[in-house]
Design brief:
Strand order of the largest sheet: 3-2-1-4-5-7-6
Number of helices: 8
Helix content: 25-40%
Shape: globular
Distance between the termini: 58 Å
Length: 222
């Protein structure tokens, strides 16, 4: 009770029951989770080369990939004109085996119920020594668009995603990190854009407020 008096919150305009933006901040600028995704990919652009595959689009592959790379786009149905590979991550029979040097898989596993099957699919398409660069959501609103179409199933922690990937890729072949703190999390849930926080506020890390979890997984021989 005393702390409530001494450390009284100044709510500004956040004491509201509806978010400032319902679309993750896309209508205000670069969403906070997208800022983190780009930081992660930029820090690992040295491995984004060769035959690169991305889900649904090739925006990140072309933005961060080495010039001269081959770009593949995976989509689960043939209704995407950008798709070069039509397949389902949870059904390896629909996927090319050992073809990909680098698989960029951002914000996808949250929407797949058989998440471990999807991780097996990621492993399946990689060449030996191929790298998967994966991001998943931790603290995040439900994506109503996805929920109403194919489902929004999971929110992860660094521990849960590490265990899932190590069961498939093996211990020692998986590096996990995160981005997030309480201010960034509150801002993201309200739909503020990355530009509305300072760089220091965005990049300060508190392991108990994980907005985005990142995975670098390497496929090694058994």
């Amino acid at each position: 009770m005393l702390l409530r008096i001494i450390n009284k919150p100044n709510w500004f305009n956040l004491r509201i029951t509806k978010p400032i933006s319902k679309v993750f901040g896309l209508d205000r600028g670069l969403p906070i989770d997208r800022f983190f995704i780009e930081k992660f990919l930029d820090s690992n652009k040295g491995v984004i080369n060769g035959t690169i595959m991305e889900v649904s689009d090739d925006v990140y592959s072309k933005k961060f990939g080495v010039i001269g790379s081959i770009f593949e786009v995976l989509h689960y149905a043939n209704d995407n004109p950008k798709a070069t590979i039509v397949g389902d991550l949870v059904n390896v029979e629909t996927l090319p085996y050992g073809k990909i040097d680098c698989f960029i898989c951002t914000q996808t596993l949250n929407f797949i119920y058989d998440v471990k099957g999807a991780i097996k699919g990621i492993h399946y398409v990689l060449k030996e020594n191929g790298i998967a660069l994966v991001t998943v959501a931790g603290i995040c609103q439900i994506s109503r668009y996805d929920m109403d179409r194919w489902g929004d199933y999971w929110r992860f922690t660094d521990l849960s995603i590490r265990k899932l990937f190590e069961e498939v890729f093996g211990v020692g072949n998986v590096q996990v990190d995160f981005y997030g703190n309480v201010l960034a999390a509150i801002s993201f849930l309200h739909g503020l854009a990355a530009d509305e926080l300072t760089l220091e506020e965005l990049l300060f890390k508190d392991q108990d407020y994980q907005i985005l979890i990142t995975v670098m997984a390497k496929k090694c021989s058994a």
